[in-house]
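Sample intake — Transcriptional regulator, MerR family
Collected from: Ktedonobacter racemifer DSM 44963
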Amino acid sequence: MTSQAGEEWLSLREAAEMLGMHPATVRLWADRNELPSRRTSGGHRRFRRTDIEARLRQESELKPNVASQMLIQNLIGRVRLDFTAGTLGRFSWYQHFNESALNAYRMLGRRALDLLLRGLNDPAHKEDLRQEAIQLGTEYGTVTRKAHVPVADAVRAFLYFRTIMDEAVLQLAEVRGAREQDIPWLESLYQIQTITNEILPALIEAAVTPESLSL
């Protein structure tokens, strides 16, 4: 939507897609006046494209710290290895995931990595991260329920990948910690656990209840 002044206004969903965030997070930023917005006569939020672009530039200026860069790369490598080596096929829980569920889980997994990366680099926004983690867990649970995946198997899969995350931190701490004492490995592990501890309960709750996602 373009106003007479030539300003382009975006809906909540469009702004969220542009930012790569969940609409709930963008709504929270607007409520806190961290992101300018206005409401239409019908009560719908609208965001100026120029404000969204400014926010994106601001986010791009945040430099990932060395620890988070190494951690995420190590984590991605481990997950890819497990997929290509057929390691996952040995687990009974993996057999219950159809192709549709696997594709959905992979997409959510990429978002989880992005959430972890932001949590490692900018832990100050704890409430934003917590809300996103809960929403992500809800979406995991919704995929689980719709794909008829046993909840116990979804939990086993989540804990398997969470263990990979923990091991990635501990391995890097062991290999590099002696030379790079300034890298907060234990703090990184704590940040990962803080986020994943919010995802898992939300996953279980959404998987066992019939309510759909509320955006």
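Post-analysis note: The first helix runs from residue 12 to 19.
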